[in-house]
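Data availability (excerpt). The following record was deposited with the supplementary files.
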Amino acid sequence: MRGLAIMVLVWMKDLYLVSFLMMVIGGGMGAFTPIAWGIVQELTPRMMVGRVLGLYGTGAMTAAISGISLFGWVTERFGESTGVAGIGATFLLTASLGGWLSWSIRNR
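Predicted structure:
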């Protein structure tokens, strides 16, 4: 939902609809981290939880820094609409890959 809301945000001009989309985006960001950490803690063997969460945090921070750098450059070079659309497309791709991974794990 967050990726779709970001993609729609590019073309919206209505202040109230933009405000609603920003709430959807913020809610998606706020809900993701505790859910992901809870799943990681449940699926990881007890003696490896600290290592796995450390690796997860490192990966998340690396992705954030890379995204900030990459989409900052894209926005500067190609404009705001392209940058925001790229961020939304990245979130949609990530959600699709996560859904596929979840499906494949359940069907093993």
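Summary of structural features: The radius of gyration is 16 Å.
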